[in-house]
Amino acid sequence: MDGGTTWTTQIIAGGGELGLACCDSSRAFDAFGNLFMTYLVYNGSRLPVALSTDGGVSFDLIASIIPKVAGLPLASRGHARISFPDQPTITTGPGSVWVTFTGGARIQAAGAAVQGLGRVGPFSAPEVAVGRNAGHFGDIAVGPSGRVLVVYQDQSGEGPGRMYTDLDPDGLGPAGFDTARLVRWTNVGDYDAIPAAATVTVDAEAGLAWNRSGGPNDGRVYLLWTQERRNESNDMDVMVQFSDDDGATWSEAVRVNDDTGKTSQFDPKIALDQTTGNVGVAWYDCRNDLGSGPPGDTNGLENDDAMIYAAISRDGGASFEPNLRVAVAVSNSADSHWTLDFGDYEGLAFEAGTLFPVWADNSNSTRDNPDGRLQQMDVYTARVEVP
């Protein structure tokens, strides 16, 4: 409640009404002060949606979304075939809240009308992205007029792979999704192993952010993704492009990371400050790990130690400012002897000129990590002021 200076922790979804949470939680505030949350539950085929009207002090279950059967097996990290939803993302827009997830190897989305604090209507039946291609690991954004766009990646292993977008032109209206559009190819597959994430692997981590600021680029939607300069080279870059026609056409992609080496930049996240229209991107970056010892290297191996970097665009995604190192020291997932690497993604919020990344870290750079240096991963954050 004090801008990130101090934090209060509580256990939620440990059973009862909210169920027993497994993983993959996602949260979003709206303009009314509603805080929405979704997550996966153990042994559950439904996707819960919870609501807090007191800033996260308490939550109530408001929906249990049942995925549509799409006729294809669902592939998920660590599971060959599963029947429950995977990797949900929740977001808000003008008078609505939307959640997207993978169900039956297809991207699905459901939305509900919002009229005020605590005044949330029932969620629609899930819509399935239209197209023959199977896909997952998606994201969702809501435009100024309530249009909804999803993005997802096909099943491609080590790559190359394809990224698709699909538009619902009237949001909560009756139209449903249009036919999916191929955006582009990437050498980053949906299960791409790199030195920093050899077990869980990475994907292109496609993400969306829609400008509803009312400024010069109002209505512009941004697409974030990861490219590998040569397939299986582990030389990965963070890319951003934009569309001014709801995803029908896209600008040329801009490289966000400004390093000159051939290391991995992976698992990026995008957020848009709706008060300014500025775009923020954060990602895990191995640029300092040359395998030559401290401070950028923990184990003598190249390209497997990472730390969070960020960059800002003030010109509508045409260019990005010099990269900012956010983390103080490098982390290494293999040194921690656990099996989840850096996880599937990191988090990012951007509002009123303040950027808040959140990431997995075992550097103990703050010297108050109870696990110690290079042990279990813990959650770190930093407040980044963008003047």
Describe this structure in words.
The protein has 387 residues and is mainly beta. The protein has a single domain (72-385), classed as Neuraminidase, CATH 2.120.10.10. It has strands spanning 21-29, 35-41, 47-52, 60-65, 74-76, 79-82, 86-93, 96-103, 106-116, 119-120, 127-128, 135-142, 148-154, 161-168, 181-186, 192-194, 197-202, 207-210, 221-228, 236-243, 254-255, 265-272, 279-285, 307-313, 324-325, 347-351, 354-361, 378-381, 384-385. The strands form eight sheets. Strands 7, 8, 9, 10 and 11 form a five-stranded antiparallel beta sheet that branches.
Please name the defining characteristics of this protein.
387 residues; mainly beta; Neuraminidase; 5-stranded antiparallel β-sheet; 29 strands
Shape by Cα distribution: globular
SS class: mainly beta
H/I helix tally = 0
Amino-to-carboxy terminus distance? 22 Å
Mean model confidence by pLDDT: 92
Helix-residue proportion: under 10%
Percentage beta strand: 35-45%
Please tell me the CATH architecture by its name: 6 Propeller
User: Care to count the β-strands?
Assistant: 29
Describe the biggest sheet?
A: 5 strands, antiparallel
CATH topology, by name, is Neuraminidase
Quick one: CATH class? Mainly Beta
Order of helices and strands: EEEEEEEEEEEEEEEEEEEEEEEEEEEEE
Question: What value does the Rg take, in angstroms?
Answer: 20 Å
Q: What is the subunit arrangement here?
A: single chain
What is the count of structural domains? 1
**Uncertain stretches of 5 or more adjacent residues:** 71-83
